[in-house]
Amino acid sequence: MTGKAKPKKHTAKELQAKADAALTNRGGGKAGLADRTGKEKGGHAKYECPHCKITAPDLKTMQIHHESKHPKLPYEEPKNLHEALAAAPESSSKPKPGIRGSLKK
User: Fold this and answer.
1) pTM
2) In angstroms, rounded to a whole number, what is the distance separating the alpha carbons of residues 47 and 55?
3) Signal peptide location in the record (predicted)?
């Protein structure tokens, strides 16, 4: 016999944690892709490794990444992605010639 036929009671803390996990955006799936990449719409990834192009949210994380993945290369402080994108001029909206399917007939 496994136990008595009494239903288990859930605490308010468990119920609140379950509701929080279900309703909070954790950045997964297609909805969180822009947030993870950080290139559009001001995501969390503010820095990009110049060697392997991986993104990181802050300088300390980027330094840890560089020390573990590129130990033989000298560490150079990367540029902020958001500042670089804001300073870059916008490209023209004209389609580039030679790209298949770019022009409507």
Assistant:
1) 0.47
2) 5
3) none
